[in-house]
Amino acid sequence: xxxxxxxxxxxxxxxxxxxxxxxxxxxxxxxxxxxxxxxxxxxxxxxxxxxxxxxxxxxxxxxxxxxxxxxxxxxxxxx
Length: 79
What we know:
Layout: H1 6-9, H2 29-78
């Protein structure tokens, strides 16, 4: 049994162990499992980022409206 060198083990040019299916996802090997975990993590990250962006938009809107109200109150008192 011939052992592969370190470089041969990590060489991505020969993808013999990870066959791809029709939808382009890898069906075998460590790279397939890693890819699935990354895709799942990206989905979660996207959902959290979307939720966070909505909160930022709401907070910004409330803050600007507060400043606008304060400005209107001070200018109406002077007139």
